[in-house]
């Protein structure tokens, strides 16, 4: 049985963590197969990605019952596995939507927070987990959560290991929408298809701009906007979309 399922639905790639008996916790096999999924997601014909979990959990983080592979012990585990997933998601010039179907804990929480859009079932839980096993937040958790929540709320949450419900996560700004479990994947695919259908490269370039904004001065960000706008206007799909819009304006 594959630890990660991959299904193409037109321009959308659905990636499902598939170790339900272990709450989709990471093993060496899951790391390898998720890396393969990111490579597939880089295909230009894929314009949006949905990431979810099978069973009652989204992802419980590292599988504490599974010994690490010999070549991924210690800090190499982060650099070549967990960190590689976070960087691969960030490098995709297309939106990644996390559909959090259940518990997201530890590195599973990091994975959810690294997505461009996070939606959740009303049964989902968001659990930092790191400090309670003597670890610091990793796999990008400190970066994404500090930016989403601000320093004080992020520190309080991560240091106390407070469990957040899906509704609490939405009120904090971590989650965009909360849905009944049977509606979650349908809604995620609906959002992905909507974004995949946007003309040209504008969605992916917007993702790139926003990821740069925190480290740029205003002048630097204006230059970045100018450079990426130049790329956007050269996309053939953009020209077709503009022509279609002008035609509609004439009719109205």
At CATH level 2, the architecture of the largest domain is Alpha-Beta Complex
In which order are the strands of the major sheet placed?
A: 1-2-3-5-7-10
Q: Nearest-angstrom radius of gyration?
A: 19 Å
- The string of secondary-structure elements, in order, is EEHEEHEEHEEHHEHEHHHH
The rounded distance between the terminal residues' Cα atoms is 55 Å
Number of strands: 10
Q: How would you classify the helix and strand content by structural class?
A: alpha/beta
Count of domain modules = 2
Strand content: 15-25%
- Fraction of helical residues: 40-55%
Under the CATH scheme, which class of the largest domain? Alpha Beta
Number of helices: 10
Q: How would you describe the shape?
A: globular
Biggest β-sheet strands, sense, barrel: 6 strands, mixed
- Stated plainly, the CATH topology of the largest domain is called 2-enoyl-CoA Hydratase, Chain A, domain 1
The low-pLDDT segments are 69-73
The average pLDDT is 91
């Amino acid at each position: 049985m594959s630890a990660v399922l991959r299904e193409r639905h037109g321009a959308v790639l659905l990636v499902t963590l598939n170790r339900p008996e272990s709450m989709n916790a990471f093993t060496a096999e899951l790391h390898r197969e998720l890396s393969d999924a990111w490579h597939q997601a880089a295909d230009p014909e894929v314009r949006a990605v949905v990431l979810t979990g099978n069973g009652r959990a989204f992802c419980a983080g590292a599988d504490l019952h599974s010994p690490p592979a010999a070549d991924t012990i210690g800090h190499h585990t982060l650099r070549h596995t967990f960190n590689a997933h976070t960087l691969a998601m960030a490098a995709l010039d297309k939106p990644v939507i996390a559909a959090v179907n259940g518990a997201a804990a530890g590195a599973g929480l990091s994975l959810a927070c690294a997505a461009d859009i996070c939606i959740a079932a009303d049964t989902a839980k968001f659990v930092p987990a790191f400090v309670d096993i003597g670890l610091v937040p990793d796999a990008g958790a400190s970066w994404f959560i500090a930016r989403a929540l601000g320093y004080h709320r992020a520190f309080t949450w991560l240091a106390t290991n407070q469990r957040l419900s899906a509704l609490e996560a939405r009120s904090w700004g971590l989650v965009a929408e909360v849905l009944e479990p049977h509606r979650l994947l349908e809604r995620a695919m609906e959002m992905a298809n909507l974004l995949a259908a946007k003309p040209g490269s504008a969605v992916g370039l917007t993702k790139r701009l926003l990821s740069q904004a925190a480290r740029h001065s205003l002048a630097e960000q204006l230059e970045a906007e100018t450079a990426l706008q130049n790329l956007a206007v050269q996309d053939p799909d953009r020209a077709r979309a503009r022509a279609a819009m002008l035609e509609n304006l004439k009719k109205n």
